[in-house]
Amino acid sequence: MSATAAPSRDPAWMPRVFWLGAGLVLLWPALVATEFRPWVLFDDSSLQSTRRFLGSFLPPATGTEFLALVARETWRTVAIATAGITLALFIAVPLTLLSTRVLSISALSGRMARGPFALRQLLRWMLIVLRSIPELVWALVFVRVVGLGPTAGVLAIALTYGGMLGKVYGEILESGDDHASATLLRHGSGRLQAFFYGVLPGNAAELTSYTVYRWECAIRSSVVLGFVGAGGLGQQMDNSMKMFNGGEVATMLLVFMALVALADHVSAWLRRGLG
Fold it and tell me: Of the candidates 137, 152, 179, 224, which lies 20 to 30 Å from 74 by C-alpha distance?
């Protein structure tokens, strides 16, 4: 009995070519709408501007007084991100507990009562509103309200990240095993007891991992928020760019890259500890 010969070509090549072509057709209007023209980067004028811009970064600023200022603003950037995430937790955790179906007593019968269902939908829409407004827009609002400085950055991160954390926390809790929480609720336990003893033990690692990841993202966001006056390293970088001081900008970019790398290592270490 002869062995079956292997096909000389991929049997699924036609569907792959079709979907690749369909993707390009759908992508083309987006490229046209955004006036995407990457070849402009290689024009003589663009290359000359790039060389002048990058040349102004050398040498990086290394003055003692300036490095002390950068260290202070770097610490302030981390503080903004940490305080913002902490306030976001105070927003996200209560909204998650109140809007999660697995912790609803009225849903044990199979269909949630009208009152709790309406409240759940209202809270979910609140989370949508919080996370749909970018932290940059919140920062612009709070700069007008509380003035320039880190307070605006902390509040901006707290609101946007509160919505993000609440949404993902709810999805994590509802995708897990709800047998233990349902059993506790049927035997008279309250919502908090069902959460701490029925839901949290099986989802603690995933919840903490996502929180740490969001803290890492908040550090990046806090630098961007500084460009609208929300304090931290970004605000100092904006000042240096306005003064055309490329050496100071280069130093702060290097510090920022080191800060992001450090945050990445810290979050990876925490995830390994949780795993």
Answer: 137
Residues 6+ positions from 254 with CB-CB distance below 8 Å: 60
Could you tell me how many residues make up the chain?
275
As a whole number of Å, the CA-based R_g of the chain is 25
Cβ-proximal residues to 246 (8 Å cutoff; 6+ apart), any chain:
53, 55, 56, 57, 58
Does the residue 7 lie in any domain?
no
User: Looking at the domain assignment, is residue 35 inside a domain?
Assistant: no
Q: Give the distance, in angstroms, between the CA of residue 117 and the centroid of all CA atoms in the same chain.
A: 29
Per-residue pLDDT tens digits for 21-31? 888 888 888 87
Instruction: List the CATH number of the domain containing 208.
Output: 1.10.3720.10
Q: Assess contact for 99 and 123: CB atoms under 8 A.
A: yes
| Residues 224-265: tens digit of each pLDDT | 888 887 777 888 888 888 887 888 888 888 888 888 888 778
User: What's the rounded Cα separation, in Å, for the pair 256 and 221?
Assistant: 12
**Phi, psi values for residue 3, rounded to 5°:** -75, 145
The answer to whether 170 and 195 have CB atoms below 8 angstroms apart is no
The single residue listed with the structure tokens 């609101």 is 159
The whole-number pLDDT of residue 13 equals 67
Of 37-41, 129-133, 181-185, give the lowest mean pLDDT range: 181-185
Determine the structural domain holding residue 97 and report its residue range. Answer: 67-274
Total domains in the chain come to 1
pTM of the complete model: 0.78
